[in-house]
Every structure is written in structure tokens, then in C-alpha cells.
Amino acid sequence: MIRSRRSILAGATVLWLAMPAALAADAAPLVESPAGTLRGEALEAVNAFRGIPYAQAPTGALRWRPPVAARPWSGVRDATRFGPACHQPPSRPESIYAPAQVPAMSEDCLSLNVWTPAEAGKAVEPAPVFVWIHGGALSAGMASDPMYDGARLAAQGVVAVTINYRLGVLGYLAHPQLSEESDEGVSGNYGLLDQIQALRWVQENIAAFGGDPGNVTIAGESAGALSVMYLMAAPPAHGLFHKAIAQSAYMISTPALRETVHGTPSAEASGLALSRTVGVRGLPRLRAMDAQALTVQAAVSGFMPLANVDGKVLPAQPVAVFDRGEQAKVPILAGFNEGEIRSLRFLLPPQPADAAAYEAEIGSRYGELADAMLQRYPATGLDEAMLATTRDAMYGWTAERLVRRQTALGQPSFLYYFDHGYPDADAKGLHAFHAAEIPYALGTAAGTPPHWPAIPDTDAEKRLSTAMLGYWVSFARDGVPAAAGFPEWRAYGDSRAYMAFDGEPRPGEQLMPGMFELVEEVVCRRRAQGDLPWHWNVGIVAPPLPAGAAGCR
User: Fold this and answer.
1) Which of 66, 79, 286, 328 has its CA at a distance of 20 to 30 angstroms from the CA of residue 300?
2) Is the pLDDT of residue 3 over 90?
3) How many Cβ atoms from other residues are within 10 Å of residue 71's Cβ?
4) Helix, strand, or coil (residue 429)
5) What H or E segment, with its residue span, contains residue 445?
6) Could you write out the DSSP letters of every residue in 95-111?
7) Per the structure, how many domains does the chain have?
8) Contact present, 217 and 128 (Cβ < 8 Å)
9) Are 472 and 245 in contact (CB under 8 A)?
10) Which residues contact 44 (CB under 8 A, 6 or more apart)?
């Protein structure tokens, strides 16, 4: 139950550039939750509770073990400061995604943050809950990032939660010795297990903040959306959430715990290879290594954190789980951005010398599908063709696949396409770049990193954010995205409806006709052959297309 030392008025409109101001110290709100009593901070129409531990720290000798619920505390715990970030490599200083300052990091990082409407605890009806999972390739990011600030969501009547989870080698290392010491005979997936534990904490405690544990939406972008997809596929997470938002998810091939699948070494084999690379053998020595040094060495060595198919947390390839209809049966809102790869050019191969070389490569690699590829990604603009090829193979195909599969389960499903540009982004060649939609959907333009293309403080930009935030909040509340004064967003359905965000919300049908079918055919053939991955190995670096297989048309 929330108590406050003075009443704060709720019902604020969307705040665009001004961060919520802290109020007087005597307004500090208290929450008495099953986890313990918390003292937060009162903002304008919103209460914030930060740095709340949801699991015991898996440090030292406990490194690489499943999370254990945090012990309840006695007395009043200060919840006015964020907890430390999980260990991660330093960002490239010039990156548009680099934070304003290097955060404090610790293995003791399993905390979450809650923003609530100031009057949430007094409301007759509990508020919907919105749990944001940060992106960062499962190797970087933090719940305290200002761009994920939950105050704007809370001002719209939502209880917002952001979570930390273990990253990189500390979150996703699998190893035969780790599997041997596990009661379930598996290893890896620790970061995913952290997310599940955070959702359990929400189920047990969020009512004390005025939230409805029976109306929880999980949401995330990039690796956060990948995590949403993992959670939908993971039986231990089912029932812990009731809706899903996946912004720029990527349903790439996933390693298995103990066997090579789709051309990818097993997760345990990758763990053994990493141990050899860093020159440290045996779990005791790996656990004795400095956490940050190990994190950096693993990243430099090329260790790629991903969940693995272990038969326990992930029962099968996510693509197969969704094909069989075994994923969580929840409404979904999913989409992608026009310029996803403009800020991720490291995913692109070197550009061919000319159009003829490009066409020759496509012809040699795609065989009978080469004409369709060249029609979809013509050589008339090589850079745009290569950007779109990788974008669609990873993000466009995934978004449409998610809404198609949830539609097949009878769940309300909504597709979006973010194609909004503004002067600074377009001048830098970053039109609608990867993650560009976040500050609009969450209303956090004030929280973008230092090198992020500057969002203009104009009525048009504010209006777009008002619309997107309204749609997102409505979906979290009711399972249907709706925003007062803006167009109806129809479910995907038979008409393949979608909403484009291009200055204004613009409803449409049949987004990129033929794109989904073309990528699906390529992925289906690779899956059938069994020894080829599917991710950014497309276009002029695609392996030769396997022959057609039964069920791929």
C-alpha cells in the first residue's frame, strides 16, 4: 500500500522535454510491500522507487547460478537512487548509444525501479503494469538509462517497471561443469532467468504500488524485444505477463546447449572455447576472475551472449515454438524501423564494386529466388538495397512473423512501421534508425544520450510522441492500441493492417508486399537443411540457397 506525507495531484499530460522535478523531502512516499517497506521520491504527479533488489546477488562462488529471490528486509529501505548496472564493456565514446557517463557496475546488480501514479494506491481500480526490458545486444544497457525513465508512463496511469539483468558472459555463459553442478543439468540463460525472477517479484509485490498483477505487459526494444520473445517461448515465464510489446525484435537462430545446430556450435562448446581464450581453466578460477576484466575479455574474444535451447527454460528454437503455437497466448504489439541498419552498419558486408557485381552475387547465391531478391532489393541503389536486405531479414520478417503467429492463436495483434525522420537524424544519414522510436513511445526525448541526433522541440514532434505514448499505454491497459484524436489502429488480421509512424500515425495495409514471404522462404529452406544459421548472413554474403523443401511454400 502506498502512503504519502502529502497528496500529489495525478493526471498530468505527456511531458516531452522537461524531466519531472523532485518535490519537497517531506512528500517522500512510503510503500509497504511483501518485500519490505520502501521510501521513494515524489515527483510531479508520480512517485518513483529506485534500486529495489529482486534477487540475491550471484557473485563470486555463486557466479553463474540461477537467481534466488531477495530476502525481505526490516525497517524502511531508501529507494531514491538507482542500483548499479550489471557488468558490461565500455561503450565506444562516439556511439549514439553511449550513455552520458559510465555507470557504477557490480555483480550485485539485480534490481528494478518502479514509477507509479501518485494516487495509484488510492485508486478503486489497480493500474496496468508495464515492464520494460532494456536493449543492448544482451551485453550492455541498464534499467537506469534516462531514455527508459518511467515517469511519463506513470503520468498516464500506468505502473512502470524497469529491470536490470545479467549481461554478457556473466549472464549467458554455458559450460559442461556448470551444467554438471546444476540440479536440472543445464547452464547459461542466467540473464533470462533473472528476467523471469523479476516478473515473479512483480507478481508478488506490484499490488502494493497500486499495480494490477493480473494485467502485466512486458516490453522491450532490440535485445529487450529478443528477451520478450524468449519469455513468450519460455514455459517458466508463462502466466507472469498478459501482453507483449516487441520493438525491433530479431528471431535469429539460437544455439543449443550441447549440440551443434544450424551451423552454430553448442553453448557449452562456446563456453569451453572462451575458457581457453582467456587462459583460465576450471570453474573455481573463472569464478575468481575480476568480473569486469572477464566481461571485457569475453567481449574482445567475440563471445556473443544469447539464450540457448536447454529443454528447460527454452524448450526449442523460438521459431519452432511459435510455429507450433506453444508460445504464451497473449496479445502483441510489434514493429520495426525503416532505417534499422543505418546505425548498425557493422552488420553489413563491404559494398560490391558496382551494380553488375551486386547482381552477379545475388544470382549466384539465391538461385531461383534471385529475381525476387533483385526486384525487392534492386541494384539501382546499392547502399539502400543492402540496408533494406539486412533490415528485413532480421527485424521486418520477425515483426510480421510475431503478429502472424499471435493472430493464428486468436490473439489481438498489432503491427507498426516507424518511418519518422527529423533534421539532425536525416542530416547524419540516420533516418528512422535503430531505437529511434523509443523516446517517442516512452515520451523521453529529454533522456536521449549525448550523441543521439537531437530531437527538435516542436509541436509536431510532441504530437507524434503523444500519439505513440497513447497507443502504447492503451495497449498495456486494454490490449488494444488507441489514442484520442488519432487514427484507429486496426489489428493485423486478414487484411494485414499496420500503423505507420511518419510524422503522423498513418494506418495502412499490406506493408512491403512480398517481403515476409521471401524472407520466410529463405529461412524455411535453411531450417530444413539444418546446417545454416539465419541472421545477417544475407544478400551478397548469403550462403547458397538450399533447394526447396516440403512445407516451405
Assistant:
1) 66
2) no
3) 9
4) coil
5) none
6) -TT--SSPPPB-S---E
7) 1
8) yes
9) yes
10) 8, 12, 15, 20, 21, 23, 155
Which among 44, 107, 338, 340 is annotated as catalytic?
340
Question: Burial, 291: exposed, middle or buried (Cβ in 10 Å; 0-12, 13-18, 19+)?
Answer: buried
Q: Are 345 and 384 in contact (CB under 8 A)?
A: no
Here the CATH number for the domain that contains residue 180 is 3.40.50.1820
Active site (annotated) includes residue 222: yes
Please give the single-letter amino acid code of residue 488. Answer: E
At 18, list the grid cell. Answer: 522537461
Strand order from edge to edge, sheet including 211-221: 41-43, 46-53, 111-117, 159-163, 127-133, 211-221, 243-247, 332-337, 413-418, 497-502, 504-509
Q: Write down how long the chain is.
A: 553
Per-residue cell: 66: 540461477
Closest by CA to 437, choosing from 389, 385, 500, is 500
How distant is the alpha carbon of residue 189 from its chain centre?
A: 16
Domain that holds residue 308: 28-541
Rounded CA-CA distance 376/516 in Å is: 11
From the CB of residue 42, how many other CB atoms can be counted at a distance below 10 Å?
Answer: 23
Dihedral angle over CA of 435, 488, 231, 261, nearest 10: -70
**Cell triple for 264:** 552454430
**Among this protein's residues, is 107 annotated catalytic?**
no
How many C-alpha atoms does 304 have within 13 Å on its Cβ side? Answer: 10
Q: Which of 434, 437, 461, 465 is catalytic?
A: 434
Instruction: Give the pLDDT confidence of 379-424 residue by residue, as tens digits.
Output: 999 999 999 999 999 999 999 999 999 999 999 999 999 999 999 9
Give the three cell numbers for residue 133.
526490458
Q: For residue 28, give Cα distances in angstroms to 117, 211, 305, 326, 474.
A: 14, 19, 40, 45, 29
- pTM to 2 decimal places: 0.94
Q: Has residue 11 been placed in a domain?
A: no
Strands lying side by side in the sheet with 30-33: 2-3, 30-33, 36-39, 76-78
Q: How many CB atoms neighbour CB 171 within 10 A?
A: 26
The secondary structure of residue 309, as a DSSP letter, is B
pLDDT for the residue numbered 100: 87
The one-letter amino acid code at 412 reads P
The pairing of beta strand 243-247 with beta strand 332-337 = parallel
What do you get for the CA distance between the two ends of the chain, in Å? 55
Cβ pair 176, 268 in contact under 8 A: yes
Burial bucket for residue 290 (CB in 10 Å: 0-12, 13-18, 19+): exposed
Partner residues linked to 418 by β-bridges: 337, 501
Cell numbers given for 296 = 571485457
Q: Which secondary structure element, helix H or strand E, spans residue 403, and what is its range?
A: helix 397-408
Task: Please report whether residue 198 resides in a domain.
Answer: yes
Among 222, 227, 248, 270, the active-site one is 222
Q: What is the identity of the amino acid at 91?
A: S
* Pairing of β 211-221 and β 127-133: parallel
Q: 244 pairs with which residues across the strands?
A: 218, 332
Task: Confirm if 391 and 344 have CB atoms less than 8 A apart.
Answer: no
Rounded Cα distance between 54 and 321, Å, is 29
Residue 23 reports pLDDT greater than 70: no
**Residue at 10 is within a domain:** no
The answer to whether residue 479 sits within a structural domain is yes
Confidence grade of residue 9 (pLDDT, cut at 50, 70, 90): very low
Contact 416, 440 (CB under 8 A): no
